[in-house]
Structures are given as structure tokens and as C-alpha cells.
Design goal:
By secondary structure, the chain is α/β, with parallel strands linked by helices. It is built from 7 helices and 6 strands, in the order ββαααβαβαβαβα.
Length: 208
């Protein structure tokens, strides 16, 4: 399939050939769901922790004798039913991360690229950089395509200048073409793909 290529002024300049297997694939909502959940789970720190009755620093002595007081029997003040006692089945430090099958992850990425193109939220832009590395110069370019909605730029290489210019823009995310993020693509309102990055995506995700 063919797609329009825009200049940094926002004008259509030419067309580029895109791989149908990547940008015109049937969208799999299930694969997208699993990929986004996987990324969110892998980012979890998992440091939540509470003390069980065995961890509470308290006396082991019985608060009163077993019989004859009229009170219910009690073993120690570390019991979960006492104020200051331990917690039953509370969270403990754990690792939430897990591996997603490569085929599912690949299907999620091409589904997201195809979906955004079908919804006209994905545009191919001629390769550019921000030689000054200044945020205002990058914002001037982005104004020709987007407002202040959540935007993702897919780069071919790890361009330090454009990353420096964009790191202060709260609604902008930058991804390398070989390290896409399902979460960022899914929630991005606008996807700008560098022309050279589009070629790399054709080859990388076009391989069966």
C-alpha cells in the first residue's frame, strides 16, 4: 500500500510504499491487550510490604492468663485482631514481570501500526532533526501536525539532539523503530513516523 509523506511544514510531498503485512494487517485487540498489560506489569516495582505477626516487634507474653478472667483467651499482642498486631495475608515484595511470547508481541505491534493508520492518526514525515537541540524548535515543527495531545515520534536512530529537544515536552514520547512500546502506541493520539524509520518497520515486522 502507498502512504503520504509530509514535510516538516505539514505539506504532502510524495508517497512511500508500506508493507501490507505491517500497516494493513487485521487488528488483534487481544494481542494489544496482552502486550500493554505485559509492559505495565514489567514496570511494577513490587516493593509493597507489611508485617505479619511473626515480624512485629512485640512481647511474646500472654496479656492475661488463659482461664478465669472472663476475657476471651489470647496468645500475645502480635495477633492480627489487636491494635498494633500483624497483618493477615498482606502484600509482600514480589516480582510482577513476565515474558510475553514473541509472536504475540509482534502481532500487537503490527496491529497497533495498522489501527493507527486506519484511524488516520499515523503520519509519515520526512527525516528531520533539531540541530539546536532546543525545545521551542521542535515544538514549532510539531505544531504543523499536532496540538498538545499525546504524541509519539518513531525514530530510525537514537538521535540525541531531537531527544534532548523533546524531553521537556510532557505530552511527547520518542521511540526507536526497533524498540516500540505497545502502551505508548495504544494511548498516543498522534503517531509521527520518520520516513527512514517506516522503511525499517517494513523490513523488521514484515519478516514472518
Amino acid at each position: 500500500m502507498k502512504a503520504k509523506v509530509f514535510s516538516i511544514q505539514g505539506e504532502e510531498v510524495k508517497h512511500i510504499e508500506l508493507n501490507d503485512d505491517v500497516f494493513s494487517h487485521e487488528v488483534s485487540d487481544g494481542a494489544i491487550y496482552y502486550a500493554v498489560n505485559n509492559e505495565l506489569a514489567n514496570r511494577r516495582v513490587g516493593t509493597a510490604s507489611v508485617k505479619t505477626r511473626g515480624m512485629v516487634n512485640y512481647s511474646n507474653a500472654k496479656p492475661w492468663r488463659q482461664k478465669g478472667t472472663g476475657h476471651a483467651r489470647s496468645g500475645d499482642k502480635k495477633s492480627p485482631i489487636w491494635v498494633g498486631g500483624g497483618t493477615i495475608f498482606g502484600p509482600q515484595p514480589r516480582d510482577y514481570s513476565y515474558r510475553l511470547p514473541k509472536k504475540v508481541k509482534r502481532l500487537a505491534m503490527i496491529s497497533l501500526l495498522s489501527q493507527k493508520l486506519q484511524e488516520e492518526k499515523l503520519k509519515i514525515v520526512e527525516d528531520f532533526t533539531v540541530e539546536t537541540g532546543k525545545t521551542k524548535d521542535l515544538v514549532a515543527v510539531l505544531k504543523n501536525f499536532v496540538g498538545t495531545e499525546r504524541t509519539v515520534i518513531i525514530l530510525k536512530d537514537d538521535d540525541e539532539l531531537i531527544r534532548r529537544a523533546g524531553r521537556n515536552i510532557p505530552w511527547l514520547r520518542m521511540l526507536s523503530c526497533n524498540r516500540l512500546s505497545a502502551k505508548e502506541l495504544h494511548y498516543g493520539k498522534h503517531i509521527l513516523v520518520m520516513e527512514s524509520a517506516a522503511g525499517n518497520l517494513n523490513e523488521f515486522y514484515g519478516i514472518q
